[in-house]
Amino acid sequence: MPARREVDPAELRTAVSVTLPWLNDRAPRPERSELAEAVRLSLRTLERLAPGRTVEVRVPPFSAVQCVPGPRHTRGTPPNVVETDPHTWLSLVTGKLSWERAVEAELVSASGARADLSRWLPLLRIAEPGEEVAEE
C-alpha cells in the first residue's frame, strides 16, 4: 500500500475553516464534500502526529485511521476505539470542545485503556473573523 501524501497545514486550515460557521451554530451543515475534506485531512494529521496502530479513530461516514503508539492491532475490532460524529470531531480538532467535556457529555465513544486523545487535541486553533481564539 503506498504511503499517504503529507497533509499540508495550510490545506488543513482552509478545509477546517470552511466548517467554522457551522461549528459555531451560525450556518447550516457544510456540503458533504467540504465536511469530508475537513474530517479526512484532520484524521490524517492526527495519524501523522500520533503514529502507531493501537487506537482506531472513526468519524463516520467519512473516515477512520489507526494511530497512537503501542501494541499493534491487526484483526477484528481493535481493543481501543474512538468514535464520534463530524461536528464533535471538528470541534475537538479546533479546540472548541475539550476531550474531557466531549467524553463526559457522551459525544465521543472512547473504549480501551489507550483511547484518550487529549494529548494530541486540538490539532489547530482557528477562529472566524471577529472571534477570539482561546489560549491554553
From TrEMBL:
Gene3D superfamilies noted in UniProt: 3.30.1050.40
Q: Which InterPro entries is this protein grouped with?
A: SCP_3 (IPR041629)
One Pfam family, please name it. SCP_3
Report the residue ranges that make up the Bacterial SCP orthologue domain in this protein: 31-123
Q: What is this protein called?
A: Bacterial SCP orthologue domain-containing protein
According to its UniProt entry, this protein's organism is: Actinopolyspora xinjiangensis
